[in-house]
TrEMBL record:
Annotated signal sequence range: none
InterPro entries: CENP-V/GFA, Mss4-like_sf
Domain CENP-V/GFA: from-to ranges: 2-34
Keyword Metal-binding applies: yes
Keyword Transport in record: no
Superkingdom of the source species: Eukaryota
Keywords, comma-separated and alphabetical: Metal-binding, Zinc
Protein name listed in UniProt: CENP-V/GFA domain-containing protein
Family: Belongs to the Gfa family.
Organism: Sporothrix epigloea
Pfam families for the chain: GFA
Transmembrane intervals: none
Amino acid sequence: MLSATCHCGRVRLSAPAPPPYRNECHCTVCYKYGAVWGYYPKTDVTITIDGSSTPATDPAFSSTEPLPGLAYYVRGDIAKTGESPGASPRGHLAFARCAHCGCMTHWVGVEPDYAENPKQRLGINTRLMDKADLVGVEHRVTEGPRM
Ligand SMILES: [Zn+2]
Ligand SMILES: [Zn+2]
């Protein structure tokens, strides 16, 4: 088991293994956050906030209302995957941070079709993982979704 923990320690995400690769996404928002994502299916991840654990498959994890102890920025500037080009942007990805120390912990889809699908992926900020746990994990840099 491997953990990503915010600076103050109130928020922790657990996954069974290191991600297959880390993605330093240079899209407009990730670049500013400085996050380096590891992608996991929701079935692999549990979040623990102030000692209270919630599996990522729990609908509360993908709700538009953040779990207590988290704060959200819901991205609304890009079309959802599969949406036709030019479709009006909708808020569908929530970038979550610890409400106390502000560390960016993860992103999760909060649209109903995503929220209800336990096979969907989420991104954990691997900068919150122990460096020793990430030795040998490929580091990619991508441009991310275009505007
Ligand atoms: Zn914190
Ligand atoms: Zn990005």
